[in-house]
Structures are given as C-alpha cells and as structure tokens.
Amino acid sequence: MGSGGHVSPLIPFVAVALLLTGQHPEMPAGMSHEEHLKQMQKDEALKQRGADAMGFDQDAAMHHFRLTATGGSIEVTVKNQRDEKTIAAIRSHLQSIASGFAGGHFDKPFQTHGEVPAGVVEMQNNSQKIAYRYEDLP
To answer: pLDDT value at position 89?
Structure first.
C-alpha cells in the first residue's frame, strides 16, 4: 500500500503481466492475436492426436526427421533419459510404424495430423521401393 491507504497501481499491473506470460508462447511477427490463438488451438489438437496415435506425451519427446542420400529416418528421443515409460512407448510406436508402413498402412500419420501429411502419397506410391526398419537408439 502507498501512503494514505492507496494500493500502488504497479502491483496489480505486475501481477497481470506475470499471469499473462505463462499462458502461451510469444506471438509470431505479422500474426494477429486471433490467428495466433487459432494456431495454438491447432497445435494443441495436433499434440493430443499425436499422444493418442503414438501413445506418449509429445512434450516428453523430440522428433528428428533426417534426410539422407538413400532416403531418411525419423528418430524420436526422450527429453528425460530416465523416463522409461516414454522410452518404451516410443519404441513400441516406432516398431508399429515400421511394420505398418512396410505393409502399406499409412493411417497413423493421418490420425496424428488430421490430414494426409506431405510425403505420404509418395511413400504409398513407392512402397515397393522403400524398406522400412526399426532400430533402437541407445
């Protein structure tokens, strides 16, 4: 309280600022607030579909998409090396994906993304030329 029993206007402003900073990430330049809210909703829906389709929390893992001269790989790693539950879920998911893709089944990417992601049609059309295999990472 300031002198005379008045509440300082700085304290409520700081409290509001602290509350707002934890709500969502910084808005990208050139994006309206409404567009940013829609993007955050889309991202949250993607994370939820990903968790449902993959069987693990998307915030607990990182996906690495690597292109090589002969194709590429998807590596999924845990953020916490001691998170055995997520490690087991990732391994199970990737084994299932490799087996499914080898059999021509590409439904999991659709389940995750809510649409057919880029590259899936090409993978389906070239399924006889592509070898899918699972490998554990240390």
So the answer is: 93
- The pLDDT tens digits for 66-83 are 988 888 888 999 999 999
Beta carbons of 50 and 112 less than 8 angstroms apart: yes
Residue 134, both tokens: 């699972």
Q: How far apart are CA 132 and CA 99, in angstroms?
A: 7
Percent of the chain with pLDDT over 90: 22
Amino acid 1 reads: M
Contact 100, 134 (CB under 8 A): no
pLDDT band at 60 (very low <50, low <70, confident <90, very high): very high
Say what the pTM is.
0.67
Cβ atoms of 73 and 66 closer than 8 Å: yes
3-state secondary structure of 82: coil
Over the Cα atoms of the chain, what is R_g?
22
Which residue in 127, 126, 79, 74 sits closest to 103, CA to CA? Answer: 127
Amino acid at 14: V
